[in-house]
Amino acid sequence: MPDHAPDAAALIADPAGGLPRLLEIMRRLRDPATGCPWDIQQTFATIAPYTIEEAHEVADAIARQDWPELEGELGDLLLQTVFHAQIGAEAGLFDFASVTKSIADKMLARHPHVFGAESRDKSADQQTADWEKIKAAERAQKAQGGVLDGVAMGLPALTRAVKLQKRAARVGFDWPSTDQVLDKLLEESRELVEARDSLSPAEVEEEFGDLMFVMANLARHMKVDPEAALRAANAKFTRRFARIEAWLAEAGKTPDQSDLAEMDALWNRAKAEEKSA
């Protein structure tokens, strides 16, 4: 063990140790001689799915307004950053200090109206436009010449679709109003119906993807977050179906002992119940 092991052990045991304590715990978990075999085996690639999952769980806690749960989920998400930073440090690529320096420098550079000489007297739209200009300059420094370069492949598909469309819109590749998007939506819907009747499964999937892409565009034009909207719809479906199950249970039945007509009637009852609440 290194000479600082007693101090490290004391830090790990200190409930008030804060971020240094967490960093030391992760270092210890990854120690090749004394760490956890599972943690030692992990790589950037194997941890990435957990990072995405934890971000979604943060969003879920916020959507449910479960603040004690949010506290824990934010800790889980922070652990992901600490885990990646430890792997980076071991590979000589970066460490937690350089990660925090990078994001701090970025925030300073992207907010000249707060930390620099620029005036704060500008609209939110103007601040957004300035933000995009700064990010465009950053992409240019990274030799990302294409308009769509740098939109992360790992984003949820709907979110990535909106980001791609926003990038294209900045150079004028966009419909001027929602009406044209709705027209395109009808066109893609018709093509999907035709594909269902005459094309292969792969072609049906392609047409369905086109329809979803237009739906993402419609959300952007209507200033709706499609991921948030779909999460809300999922929550509503879950909530209403739970009411169906509860009413069926009162009648001594389960859903598989019911039929579509009965459950549809109960669905409408649940819908009316929510609207009258």
Kindly describe this structure.
- It is globular and about 70 Å long.
- The longest helix has 25 residues, at 226-250.
- α4 packs antiparallel against α5 and α10 runs antiparallel to α11.
- The chain contains 13 helices and no strands.
- It starts with a helix and ends with a helix.
- By secondary structure, the chain is mostly helical.
- The protein has helices at 5-13, 18-29, 37-41, 44-63, 67-90, 96-110, 112-115, 124-141, 157-170, 178-198, 201-221, 226-250, 260-276.
Summary?
This protein is mainly alpha-helical and 277 residues long. The chain is 74% helix and 0% strand.
According to DSSP, the number of beta strands is: 0
Low-pLDDT sequence parts: none
Mean pLDDT: 91
Task: Report on the biggest sheet.
Answer: none
Question: So, the CATH homologous superfamily of the largest domain?
Answer: MazG-like
- The chain-level structural class is mainly alpha
Computed over alpha carbons, the radius of gyration is: 25 Å
Percentage of residues assigned to helices: over 70%
The total tally of domains equals 4
CATH fold call of the largest domain:
Helix Hairpins
| Terminal residue distance | 63 Å
Q: Order of SSEs, N→C?
A: HHHHHHHHHHHHH
In percent terms, what proportion of residues is strand? under 5%
Structural descriptors:
277 residues; mainly alpha; Helix Hairpins; 13 helices
List the helices and strands and how they pair.
Blueprint: H1 5-13, H2 18-29, H3 37-41, H4 44-63, H5 67-90, H6 96-110, H7 112-115, H8 124-141, H9 157-170, H10 178-198, H11 201-221, H12 226-250, H13 260-276
GO molecular function: ATP diphosphatase activity
InterPro entries: MazG-like_dom, NTP-PPase_MazG-like_C, NTP-PPase_MazG-like_N, NTP_PyrPHydrolase_MazG
Catalytic activity: ATP + H2O = AMP + diphosphate + H(+)
